[in-house]
């Protein structure tokens, strides 16, 4: 009996130990499942659950006694570094180890952007937000991607392979672009993407190229237009004053022309029917008509315009305007150049707005 009792006690201790180790293994397994995320989700989904809701879900599990809180999990693990999609109106990028962030930089004087690659794309020791910029490449819209790849490899021989990818809604490289794709097509697709950019994949790391928003793209252009408007404002006032004087002279010229024709008709009628008769005045009327024809042809040779009352009046007004401009110190050529620049900038802003707003 003592032998059976001893064997029963040994078996009880063995069963208790197995149960204890099984419970400990369950603790380790569940804790590891909490610490290691099973999948990566966009940050906009992580923000949808509050910390209290997550703790409440953990507390209802069978292993709640062995589970750790969300605060302990966040403090003891590496945070998931993601990017907020553009449709959330947040353009703050959070870097992680294998991702560098470049950008397209647009200049006021050139519609083609520059591709700026930071030093973090080359050296892993540099921060993504380092003030030192690695290099800038001309990003002509009509060039194929193969030319851009060649330029990057010339500057960075460390890159053996370079490919361009479309950005998915979860901020990952998706569709690979052919090297024959044109730059303008890639930019147009990147503008419509949720993350607002595209990826450049190399054999070293991933490079995300950020496309500026419509406001960022047009801010410098709108400021330049405002500067042109300020420079044009005093010139416009002076021009309006000179044009007003020239317009008044135009009215006087038209009235004077009408008065001259009526006077000519009255004088010729008096000389023909009362003073000298038709036989004497006929040669004068003939040579007067021929003289008007000679004057009209001479006007055409000088001005390259048809001899009409409208053309003659405009020519006289323009001559008067130029005299007034010179008298008051108005630089008409500078005014015309500034007006042309302003109109070109407004057209450029409108084209950019169509690129971003066209579905």
Structure in a nutshell:
With 359 residues, the protein is α+β, with helices and mostly antiparallel strands. Helices cover 58% and strands 13% of the residues.
Walk me through the topology.
Blueprint: H1 2-35, H2 43-46, H3 51-59, H4 70-76, E1 99-107, E2 110-118, E3 133-138, H5 145-155, E4 162-167, E5 173-177, H6 183-192, E6 197-202, E7 206-210, H7 214-275, H8 278-303, H9 309-328, H10 332-357
Parallel strand pairs: 1-7
Antiparallel strand pairs: 1-2, 2-3, 4-5, 4-6, 6-7
Order of helices and strands: HHHHEEEHEEHEEHHHH
Number of structurally distinct domains: 2
Low-confidence stretches: 20-25, 27-97, 125-131
User: Level of helix content?
Assistant: 55-70%
Q: Name the strands of the widest sheet in spatial order.
A: 3-2-1-7-6-4-5
Oligomer description: single chain
Query: Beta-strand percentage?
Result: 5-15%
Structure description:
The longest helix has 62 residues, at 214-275. Helix 7 runs antiparallel to helix 8 and helix 7 crosses helix 9. This protein is rod-shaped. Helices cover 58% and strands 13% of the residues. It has helices spanning 2-35, 43-46, 51-59, 70-76, 145-155, 183-192, 214-275, 278-303, 309-328, 332-357; strands spanning 99-107, 110-118, 133-138, 162-167, 173-177, 197-202, 206-210. The protein contains ten helices and seven strands. The chain is α+β, with helices and mostly antiparallel strands. The protein has two domains: 100-212, Roll (Ubiquitin-like (UB roll)); 216-357, no CATH class. Mean pLDDT is 72; it is low at 20-25, 27-97 and 125-131. It has a seven-stranded mixed sheet. This is Calcium uniporter protein, mitochondrial. The chain crosses the membrane at residues 253-272, 284-302. One of its GO terms (molecular function) is uniporter activity. Homotetramer, assembles in a dimer or dimers configuration with two interfaces. It catalyses: Ca(2+)(in) = Ca(2+)(out).
């Amino acid at each position: 009996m003592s032998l059976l009792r001893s064997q029963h006690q040994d078996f009880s201790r063995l069963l208790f130990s197995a149960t204890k180790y099984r419970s400990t293994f369950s603790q380790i397994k569940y804790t590891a499942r909490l610490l290691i995320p099973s999948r990566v989700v966009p940050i906009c989904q992580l923000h949808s659950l509050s910390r209290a809701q997550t703790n409440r879900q953990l507390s209802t599990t069978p292993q709640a006694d062995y589970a750790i809180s969300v605060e302990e999990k966040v403090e003891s693990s590496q945070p998931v570094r993601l990017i907020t999609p553009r449709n959330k109106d947040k353009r703050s990028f959070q870097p992680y180890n294998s991702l560098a962030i470049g950008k397209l930089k647009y200049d006021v004087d050139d519609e083609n952007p520059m591709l700026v690659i930071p030093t973090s794309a080359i050296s892993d020791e540099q921060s993504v937000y380092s003030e030192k910029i690695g290099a800038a490449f001309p990003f002509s819209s009509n060039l194929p991607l193969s030319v851009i790849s060649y330029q990057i490899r010339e500057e960075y021989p460390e890159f053996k392979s370079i490919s361009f990818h479309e950005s998915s809604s979860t901020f990952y490289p998706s569709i690979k672009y052919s090297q024959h794709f044109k730059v303008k097509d890639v930019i147009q697709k990147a503008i419509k993407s949720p993350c607002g950019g595209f990826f450049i994949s190399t054999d070293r790391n991933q490079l995300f190229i950020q496309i500026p928003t419509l406001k960022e793209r047009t801010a410098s252009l709108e400021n330049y237009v405002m500067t042109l408007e300020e420079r044009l404002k005093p010139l416009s006032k002076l021009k309006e004053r000179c044009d007003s004087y020239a317009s008044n002279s135009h009215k006087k010229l038209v009235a004077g022309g009408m008065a001259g024709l009526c006077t000519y008709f009255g004088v010729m009628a008096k000389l023909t029917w009362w003073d000298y008769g038709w036989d004497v005045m006929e040669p004068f009327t003939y040579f007067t008509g021929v003289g008007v024809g000679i004057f009209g042809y001479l006007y055409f040779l000088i001005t390259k315009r048809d001899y009409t009352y409208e053309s003659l009046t405009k020519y006289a007004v323009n001559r008067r305007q130029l005299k007034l401009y010179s008298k008051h110190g108005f630089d008409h050529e500078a005014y015309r150049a500034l007006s042309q620049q302003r109109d070109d900038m407004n057209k450029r802003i409108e084209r950019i707005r169509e690129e971003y707003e066209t579905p």
